[in-house]
Structure formats: C-alpha cells, structure tokens
Amino acid sequence: RRPARPHRDLVSTRTDCCYYSAEPSVRVMQWNILAQALGEGKDGFVRCPSDALDWQERKYLILEEILTHRPDIVCLQEVDHYHDTFLPILGSLGYQGSFLAKPRSPCLDVAPNNGPDGCALFYTRARFSPMATDHLRLSATMLPTNQVAIVQTLCCRATGRQLCVAVTHLKARSGWERLRSAQGADLLHRLRTITCRAATCTVDSDAPGGLSEDLPLVVCGDFNAEPSEDVYRRFLSSPLRLDSAYKLLSSDRQTEPAYTTWKIRPSGESRSTLDYIWYSHDSLSVETLLDIPSEEQIGPDRLPSYHYPSDHLSLLCDISFRERPHRLM
Ligand code: NDP
Ligand code: CA
Fold first, then answer.
1. Which residues touch 217 (CB under 8 Å, ≥6 apart)?
2. How many CB atoms lie within 10 A of CB 305?
3. In this structure, how many other beta carbons lie within 10 angstroms of the beta carbon of residue 115?
4. Exposure of 254 in the CB half-sphere (CA atoms within 13 A)
5. Which residue, by CA, sits nearest to atom 22 of ligand 1?
C-alpha cells in the first residue's frame, strides 16, 4: 500500500485593501497532464517507476485530482485520451468539453499511441452557457505552426456575467524562444479580437456582464517559457491588461513559483516554471490558489511518480469578478 498523496492547501490571497464580490468565485484549473504516448514512449523519465506511467494507474490519479477540487473550468494540455476517457467521464459529471488536437502531434511517432495530443477545455454546464468556441492554430509571423489554442466564451447562468477562457500549449524546448514569443503575440492579437467582438454583441442587458467593454479573460497554458522569456513579458505588458495568478503565492506577490514542472531525463534534472494562469486584473481578482508541493513532498525522484501523475503540477485558483465601479476607476 502506497502512502497517501501529500495534501495541497488552498491559500487565501485576499488583502484588506480590496473589495471582494459576494458572488461565488469561479474555480479554474490549469494542467499539462502528460500525454500517455509521450510519457511512455518519448520523455525518458528515468527515475519514474514504469508502472507509475501505466495509463490504468495514471488516469485515476488525474481524474482524482480534477474531481477533488471540482473546478468550474478545466484547461488541459497533452490530452491524448479525450474521446475515450475525459469526455465520457467528465461529461457524465456535468462538464461540457472541447478538444483541439495539434496538427502534427508527436504522439503519432510513438507506437502504440492513442491518437494525437492536444488542448482540452471543460466547463460546468450548470454554471455556464456557451456563447462562442474558437479553435485556433497559432501562427508565427504569418506562418502556421504546430501549436493550438481553444478560446471559449461563456455566460454565467445565474448572473449574466460573461467570461472568456483560453487554453494553449506553446512550442517546447530551448532554442525556440522566438517562436514562442511569436505564438504568444498571435494568441494575444486574436484574443483581443474575440474579447472585443463578444463585448460589443451584448448590449441593452441589465446584467453586469452586458457592458460594452472588453470581456474578462482567463488564459491558461503550458507556455514552455520561464518568466525571463520574451513571451512572458509580452503577456504581462499586453493591452489586454493581464497578470499572472500564481505570483500572488509569493510573499512579495510579484514572484512566480520556483517550479511548475520538475523531472529527471537521461540528459539531467530539469526544474522550471512554465505554466501560468493569466487573468484580466481590472475586471477579475484572485481569491485563492492551490499551494505548490514542496521539494520534500515531490521527493528525490521528482515527477511524475506514484503520487503525481504528470511531470507538470496542476495549478488551481478561485477567481471573482470585481464590481463595476471598481472597473471604471
Ligand atoms: P514540441 O517541441 O512543442 O514538444 C512536443 C512535446 O515534447 C511536448 O509535449 C513537450 O512537453 C515534450 N518535450 C519537451 N522537451 C522534451 C524532451 N527533452 N524530451 C522529450 N519530450 C520533450 O513539439 P512540436 O509540436 O514541435 O512537435 C515535435 C515533433 O512533432 C517532432 O519531433 C516531429 O516528430 C513531429 N512533427 C512533425 C512534423 C511533420 O510535418 N512531419 C511537423 C511538426 C512536428 P512539455 O510541453 O511538457 O515540455
Ligand atoms: Ca510534456
């Protein structure tokens, strides 16, 4: 019998100086779940026991982690079991899903494989109604690339508030920093169009979401980029006025976590911060964050492991809408 998985605390990020809405917050999860074909066939996680990489083991840990927190919105990367696992199971539990495969997934180079990997986005049907779904293939300086994004515009059934959520997985590996930056620029550009379009098609509503101003936006992703990279700076300085939620976990509220992925390959150990939840800081505020496991909790063999089914950690936060007067200030 394996020891229980280490508990991760939900940490409040509230400060006395901010007003917090009485409306229930929206729980958002971001997670690169590690494509089954890549984990078994390509990654070379030399310190991970091979049975911990077995899909029949891993799928329960992934689903357990999602269902422990019951997020309203789930953004996943490296999904290569959408149709046979996540859609039927999460669909039966009240989630609506959408999947976009990479045009040429590296999973297809692995034998056997379960089809291409891609991004998936789920939201709870009880809470949200869909307004628009955009499936994007990211470009870099006009040329199509192998990376994708899903952009889902939602309307909160209870309040009429609208929210735009995006999930993406940018090009991996060192040497591709300029491509990631260009992909980020393309995504930001297209998000601007989508959030303006959605905002202007809702007029004459009494609901708070029916304002003709840009839609509140949440962008979840494995950016494959440390905070020192160009694409990170692009997101931070974009006209969409985004900020990164997990900075609020640090004592100065300005520093990203030390790691969101930590693994050992034949080439050595790699510990980096690559995953982010971006949010519109004028219209949204972050109320809680799921703590990052400590080095001791992760253990000497790092990720994945019997306790953590992916080499990336899940990120989770509760986001609330700021009141209208605050937005206009
Ligand atoms: P990426 O370079 O973005 O990476 C693909 C996956 O590899 C990611 O999920 C990434 O995980 C993982 N990865 C990152 N670093 C390593 C590593 N050191 N060892 C093993 N895996 C790693 O993929 P692309 O979309 O650019 O596709 C790359 C592959 O796809 C090529 O190898 C090629 O086989 C194929 N391809 C073929 C094309 C064709 O026309 N024939 C065109 C495009 C691609 P993470 O995000 O967690 O870091
Ligand atoms: Ca990976």
1. 163, 164, 165, 166, 191, 195, 240, 242, 278, 279, 280
2. 22
3. 17
4. 1
5. 43
User: Domains along the chain?
Assistant: 10-324 (3.60.10.10)
199-256 per-position pLDDT tens digit? 654 544 554 544 447 899 999 999 999 999 999 999 999 999 999 999 999 999 999 9
Cα 15 to ligand 2 centre (Å): 35
Give the Cα-Cα-Cα angle 63, 291, 13 (nearest 5 degrees).
120
Beta-strand runs (E) in 160-314 = 162-169, 217-222, 242-244, 261-265, 268-272, 275-280, 284-290
Closest by CA to 125, choosing from 163, 93, 95, is 95
- The tokens describing 299, both together, are 């253990």
Distance 151 CA to ligand 1 centre (A): 22
ipTM comes to 0.92
